[in-house]
Amino acid sequence: MLLQYVSLILLMFFITFFAGVFWKYIRTKTVVPQKMFSYKQGGLFEHYIIVGTLTVLIIFLHLAFDLSPFGENILNRVISILTLAGVGYAFLVFIFIFMFYLIAVIYTKIVKIEDRQAFFGRHNDRIVTTAMILSAILMVPVLIIGILQLLGVIGT
User: Fold this and answer.
1) Among 39, 71, 103, which residue terminates a domain?
2) Which terminus has fewer CB within 10 Å in the chain: N or C?
3) With contact defined as beta carbons under 8 Å apart, do 90 and 13 qualify?
4) Is the CA virtual torsion 143, 137, 32, 26 positive or negative?
5) How many domains is the chain built from?
6) Integer CA distances (angstroms), 52 to 7, 17, 42, 58, 73, in order
7) What is the pLDDT of residues 84-102, one digit of tens each?
8) pTM
9) What is the residue range of 133's domain?
10) For residue 85, what are the CA distances in angstroms to 26, 82, 124?
11) How many helices (H) and strands (E) does the chain have?
């Protein structure tokens, strides 16, 4: 049971870290590398208050109402849907960014663009924003199907 809670907590840190990175990029259009294993701004454990609050809430629901987050109940389904959406979104963003940059590199070689740094400087924001939007569009059906399964409208 303890290992399952540790796994869930690490997964929540992972999701909040990438949500913070994506949100910072949307606001500032830049991402500055930080110390990864830090609780300060830009670190993996930056959102420890959010993760701690969610963990305490989940443990409270487990102890008070016997709703195990790892059993077959509504709490498990909600956690599964949200973690799938968070991890899936982060994964898709990175896959699309990689694909779009690969296409852009091939394009610069075919067209023989000399100043690639300037080319990517102009198109960097479009590539990342398109990857983020496309990933969100692809994750919406996953969330809708998960919610419909949660409500019992469709079977599992």
Assistant:
1) 71
2) C
3) no
4) negative
5) 2
6) 14, 14, 18, 10, 22
7) 999 999 999 999 999 999 9
8) 0.85
9) 72-156
10) 19, 5, 25
11) 4, 0
